[in-house]
Amino acid sequence: MKTQAKTESKKAELEGVIAKLTSKIDKAAAKSAELKEEVKELQAELAELAESQAEMDKIRSEQHAAYSVAKEELTAGLTGVRKALSVLTEYYGSSAALLQAGTSMEDAMQQPAKPAGHSKASGAGGSIIDILEVCESDFASNLAKEETEEADAAEDYEKTTQENKITKTTKEQDVKYKTAESVSLDKEISELSSDKEGTSTELDAVVAYLDELKPKCERKAPSYAERKAARESEIEGLKEALKLLA
After folding, report:
1. How many CB atoms within 10 Å of residue 220?
2. Which of 23, 90, 96, 246 is deepest in the core (most CB within 10 A)?
3. Which range marks the domain in which residue 59 is found?
4. Which domain CATH number covers 78?
5. What string of pLDDT tens digits covers the 246 residues of the chain?
6. In whole angstroms, what is the distance from residue 70 CA to residue 83 CA?
């Protein structure tokens, strides 16, 4: 009976160990699956971020190329207008001075005035200068506008790019750590499963041994008829013994 009791105790102990191992395996498997799903989501987010950054790079490149062309054209136009203004201003300024000096000499010599053509030419030159000054203002204004827009676009691009870099680094680190943790959990699951398998094998052996012990340890109680027959046989034996003694 002692052997059976010890074997029953061992069986209960092994069953408890298997229950604990099963619980640990289930928890580790659930956590590993959760981590793998999170890694999958992070990788999808990283792919989306890379695609967004690539599109932004393309747009920024196109914007800068358009700005470079516009700047070159506006700068060339502004340079040409200013050069023309310089020449015309110098020319008509000199003509006006000469005209003024000639008029003074004519007055002194009491000669007739110059034909009205000079006055008209001076007036036409002033109109051209006015038009060129308007053109100069437009070129300068448009160039300043282009430069401001380029500066703003570049600033926004750099800011967003930097934010994307930080986000990318953070998510990549999360992927790295979560992947390492899931790998560690999978290794732990493998070890726990091995332990569970060994314990299950031991439990099977204990159960088999217990099955062998039960027939030996358990006594089958005799039935009423068997007890009655045995009692009657015992009485008959006693009677026979008395007869022999008599």
Report:
1. 6
2. 96
3. 2-245
4. 1.10.287
5. 677 788 888 889 999 999 999 999 999 999 999 999 999 999 999 999 999 999 999 999 999 999 999 999 999 999 999 999 888 888 877 655 544 444 443 443 343 343 333 343 455 667 888 898 899 999 999 999 999 999 999 999 999 999 999 999 999 999 999 999 999 999 999 999 999 999 999 999 989 888 887 766 555 556 667 777 777 777 777 777 677 766
6. 20
